[in-house]
Write a structure and sequence with these properties.
Layout lengths: L1 H11 L6 H13 L5 H4 L7 H15 L4 H5 L1 E4 L2 E4 L12 H16 L4 E6 L5 H9 L3 E7 L2 H13 L6 E5 L11 E6 L14 H6 L13 H11 L2 E10 L5 H12 L3 E6 L5 E7 L4
Parallel strand pairs: 3-4, 3-6, 4-5, 6-7
Antiparallel strand pairs: 1-2, 7-9, 8-9
Length: about 280
């Protein structure tokens, strides 16, 4: 559609990193059709009201509002998740963490063990809910210090029919899970150094929660609090994994070894070949 081409051109000059994709998503939303239908109906004539609806959405995007906030959702692990300004918008990089956790969980399940998983700082719930869907035998506990974020996570658990197996807890790090133990603990904590927040894309720095981004002066503050907390709930023989800034693998590995008393640590790359996840297996002796 010509309107998509024109919209993409406008967005390209207004700071969008993916102007064509953004234009397609917004046009499909305005017309109440699938993105694919834009091509199946490429010669469809549009009424002025429809063109106006597309222009309004494109203008919002050009003003810096994230597409996910305009549409109310973002795809993650091939599923749609509801998002609001109260949560970090799910990123494809985080799928690396989920994939590793699914792989590890299936190995535990094959051994006949019950799956107990914790997602710390769940935000939108995209990690916890995805694990619940991918692992029908698992029970997932998710925590977050933000009650509005937990409301979004609850909506996503209901949306994907795992609300009975994904339990949500309000509180900092693993504190709400005190006295319990988990085979797998995962987290995607804030890790952007404070001084770098101002250089983030406008839609990120102006529309996503700073608390989910700001990792302190060196980007490691969250790990300093999170990893000792993980040590209190990780079961003997358990496995923990955290997403990282690609520059922080060595530092996070060191913090994890210290918090967990040694053991095995491994760095895992994302699909772009960049360090994205550090996993830990504490000593069993």
């Amino acid at each position: 559609m010509e309107v998509v081409r024109l919209s993409a051109g406008y967005l390209e000059t207004h700071g969008s990193a993916s102007p064509r994709l953004d234009a397609e998503l917004l046009a499909a939303m305005a017309l109440h059709i699938r993105r694919l239908d834009l091509y199946l109906q490429f010669d469809r004539p549009l009424e002025e009201a429809q063109l106006g609806a597309i222009r309004d959405l494109v203008r919002r995007r050009g003003d810096g509002e994230p597409v996910a906030h305009i549409t109310g959702e973002r795809e993650f692990y091939a599923r749609a998740f509801s998002v609001t300004p109260d949560v970090l918008i799910p990123r494809p990089e985080t799928e690396t963490l989920v994939g590793l956790a699914v792989q590890r969980a299936r190995a535990i399940a094959a051994a006949g063990s019950e799956l107990r998983i914790a997602d710390i700082g769940t935000g939108s719930g995209c990690i916890a809910v995805t694990l619940g869907v991918e692992l029908p035998a698992a029970r997932v506990a998710a925590t977050d210090v933000s009650e509005p974020a937990l409301a979004v996570a609850a909506a996503n658990a209901r949306r994907h029919d795992v609300a009975e197996r994904v339990e949500l807890h309000h509180g900092s790090w693993c504190a709400p899970l005190a006295g319990r133990s988990f085979d797998i603990v995962v987290a995607n904590p804030p890790y952007i150094p404070t001084a770098e927040l101002a250089a983030l894309a406008r839609d990120v720095r102006e529309h996503e929660p700073v608390a989910a981004l700001d990792g302190g002066a060196d980007g490691l503050d969250a790990y300093r609090a999170l990893l000792p907390s993980v040590a209190t709930v990780l079961a003997p023989g358990g496995w923990a994994a955290v997403e990282i800034d690609i520059r922080a693998a060595e530092a996070v590995e060191s913090l994890g070894r210290e918090a967990l008393g040694g053991g095995v640590a491994a760095v895992h790359e994302d699909l772009s070949g960049r360090p994205r996840v550090v996993s830990f297996e504490p000593p069993t002796g």
